[in-house]
Write a structure and sequence with these properties.
Tetrahydropterin Synthase, Chain A; 3-stranded antiparallel sheet; 295 residues; 22% strand; alpha+beta
């Protein structure tokens, strides 16, 4: 039997190992993932971040965990203190903590198991517990109630799921569906409120119109008063003028004669007028026949 040199045997063994095990001497972890290794079923305490890891034990078995953010949505019927059921749609944003993946693999298993064993049951439980603090179903529509509910759910899930290797980042209430008869009552209330607002607007419009009419009437009254005052002032001026004329006549009798001469002059210009000789000592003017008339 031919004896092979020892170095050749070593080389053959190395080549055989690479051929047999191949890529098991390195591990490539994709982006957004971590890897956990087991050796004969025993979970290794170290997790492997994304990237290439060389060398690794070729006997390792590998489990990948997606550590990117995920969203789970849940619809639950939540009883309030008035024993009415309100349907609430909630979304939870969470991610797997990479450093906790060895413990997750050992105690829970895959991400699907984490969701089914921890996230979903705890979310449902927290929603029911928080619903018990709400007095009336319609209070779920209040912004304050929704904010309080979101904060309480977030804190409760963080406290519990944080110990399970799950980081909860946000809790969002997507939709709330009240019992049908409450929804109808709320819609009726809204319609009544809208009708009241409509009536208020109509009343305000009417009041505005009335105020405008009052202002117009006041303006017209002021204009009439101003016109009356104008006429009064004119009448006062005329009366004053007459008074002054009378005073002038009383103080100067010749003023009457002057005015009579003016009138006589005006009469003389009229061919149809009769001519009078006025005797200053006679109480009556003496009419003369139409002189120069031809018969």
């Amino acid at each position: 039997m031919v004896q092979l040199p020892k170095p050749l045997l070593v080389a053959i063994a190395v080549i055989f190992g690479f051929v047999f095990f191949g890529s098991r001497f390195y591990q490539s972890v994709p982006a957004g993932h971590v890897a956990v290794a087991t050796l004969f079923g025993e979970v290794q305490p170290k997790h492997y971040a994304e990237g290439l890891h060389v060398p690794v034990n070729p006997l390792f078995d590998w489990y990948l965990y997606d550590v990117r953010q995920k969203t789970h949505s849940e619809t639950s019927n939540v009883p309030s203190q008035d024993q009415l059921q309100t349907k609430i749609d909630v979304s939870v944003q969470y991610r797997i903590v990479g450093s906790e993946t060895p413990s997750i693999l050992k105690e829970t298993g895959s991400i699907a198991n984490v969701l089914a064993v921890h996230v979903v049951p705890q979310l449902r439980s927290q929603i029911r517990e928080q619903g018990k603090t709400i007095k009336r179903a319609e209070d779920f529509f209040l912004e304050e109630t929704q904010n309080t509910l979101q904060v309480a759910l977030l804190e409760g899930l963080k406290d519990y799921l944080g110990t399970k290797g799950v980081a909860v980042e946000a809790v969002l209430i997507r939709d709330i569906t009240l019992p049908p008869f409450i929804t109808k009552a709320i819609e009726g209330k809204k319609e009544r409120e809208q009708e009241v607002e409509k009536q208020k607007a109509e009343l305000e419009r009417y009041n505005t119109e009335q105020q405008q009419k009052i202002a117009l009437a006041i303006a017209e009254k002021d204009a009439a008063s101003a016109e009356a005052e104008k006429r009064r002032l004119i009448a006062d001026a005329q009366a004053y003028e007459i008074t002054k004329i009378n005073e002038a006549i009383g103080k100067n009798p010749n003023y009457v004669k002057l005015e009579a001469l003016k009138a006589l002059q005006a009469i003389s210009k009229d061919p149809a007028a009769k001519i009078y000789f006025v005797n200053g000592d006679s109480p009556q003017p003496l009419p003369l026949m139409h002189m120069g008339e031809t018969k």
